[in-house]
Amino acid sequence: MSDARSFAALRQPRFRAYFFYAALAMMADSIEHVISYWIIFQKIESPALGGFAVVAHWLPFLLFSVYSGALADRFDPRRIIQLAMLVFMAVSLAWGLLFLTDTLEMWHAALLLVLHGLAGVLWTPAAQVLIHDIVDDQRLHSAIRLTATARWLGLLAGPAAGGLILLAAGPTYGILLNALIYLPMVL
């Protein structure tokens, strides 16, 4: 029997923290898109690379979601999420280093876009499996709905936050700051 109260899963402290950090991680994902796509547009000026950015983000989901889900079933989903967040952080740091040294080339961008997409496909199924470990059965339905809400909140807030960070800190320091936003999900 499920808990019929509104937002029931948020009454559990572990889920409340997870909800917040999942929204932050999704926001960081979107911030990275805003800043890296802006620099790609400014430095490389390749419409083909712009199209590749979208394909590199979503094709890994199409090709590897089933396998990533199997990994999440077989191994501790927390460790898989940590690995995915470390990859996201490494990609943000690599963008920052390339921006800082003004050495960004098309192949760098393509590689980082693919790694970012792979981190996303590693994270998503594990995040869904983890919900079952952090809430009781009565609040599971609520947790599933709220986790979807957290992802959409992060997706919605990310471009706005990315634009503000880009304006306030610039692309180099903005993308380096973005790497830190993933840190709570690693910890």
Structure report:
The protein is mainly α. Helix 3 (77-101) runs antiparallel to helix 4 (106-134). The two termini are 33 Å apart. It is built from six helices and no strands. The protein has helices spanning 13-43, 47-74, 77-101, 106-134, 140-181, 183-186. 85% of the residues lie in helices and 0% in strands. The chain is globular.
Mean pLDDT: 95
Judged by helices, strands and strand pairing, the structural class is: mainly alpha
Order of helices and strands: HHHHHH
Q: Helical proportion?
A: over 70%
Low-confidence stretches: none
Q: Measured on Cα atoms, how large is the radius of gyration? A: 17 Å
Percentage of residues in DSSP E strands:
under 5%
**First-last Cα distance:** 33 Å
Main attributes of the structure:
187 residues; 6 helices; single chain; globular; mainly alpha
How do the strands and helices of this protein lay out in sequence?
Elements: H1 13-43, H2 47-74, H3 77-101, H4 106-134, H5 140-181, H6 183-186
Briefly characterize the structure.
The chain is an all-alpha fold and 187 residues long. It has helices at 13-43, 47-74, 77-101, 106-134, 140-181, 183-186. It has six helices and no strands.
